[in-house]
Amino acid sequence: MLDGTCFQNWCLLIATNGHYVLDWQWCDREKKIAWAQILQRWPAPRLVVTDGGTGLHAAVHEHWPQARVQRCYFHIFQNVRRYTTLAPRLEAGRQILALTRALMKIQNLDQAALWLGAYASWEARWNEFLRHRTYARTGTERPSSVPLDKPWWYTHRDLRSVRGLFRGLIKHENLFAWLALAPDIDKPLPRTTSPWKALRTRPSRTSCGDTAECPRTTPDEPRNGSWTPSPQPHESPGHSHAKSTGNRHQRDRRSLQARSPAPPSAPASPGKTATESNTAGPAEHTPDPATTRPGHTLILANNPHFGQ
Length: 308
Prior knowledge:
The chain has helices at residues 32-39, 54-63, 73-84, 91-103, 109-126, 157-171, 177-181, 197-200, 241-259, 274-277; strands spanning 2-7, 10-16, 21-27, 47-50, 68-71, 133-135, 152-154. By secondary structure, the chain is α+β, with helices and mostly antiparallel strands.
């Protein structure tokens, strides 16, 4: 499973097998050359689960061309939800959102075939509806992405985007790749990059990641065991609430810093010690010029201080 997360101006790329972190990489953003640093260090697996990023897709296609690619179901749901919202106004939107939720519950090839049939029926039913056009007239709001010289645009552009998403996943066999390999492997295969997201949410005191195996069966249901603040004891006279809140925030911040890996800082400048330059590692970790843009110092080798 390959995924990335951002810490302020840095991005941490993670490769995991679902139980352990296998490799990691610091970069400024998720791009092909950054992902290639990880992929080149490992042999190609039979299945790789990705979030659908273009940089990662290009790197996998170049360095692991024989690996089957499974698109993360959680990211599929997030993409669909962005277009339809959780309360679609149109019936076509409500149906495709329900189909996306049903995707999370598929366990075998027979169920996958039934899902594909239901999706084909959705496309057939709403095909003419999705061809509706809106023409530029006085008082008609023009979408910001439509050029000013274009006299018309598709009315249901968001639903067309959802249709395009699923068409691409089906065409490139990224929707049920994990099921195609399942008969040859005696353990459940992942179809989401999200198990390791539970680790990333620990500083916010949530106890459950967004996974298909999570007790929360769909991504929009409430988390089981989510942390809620406990009531504060009665304060003694002379003890201000602001001071108590400030101390609690300081404890939370120290806990967050202890749990989260700090991005590498720039090497010490000549004539200064590491403490004076506020660096996180020895000076011999130098950035790769090919992956460094002006104003950023990137360390694309394994950071030995990450696991400390």
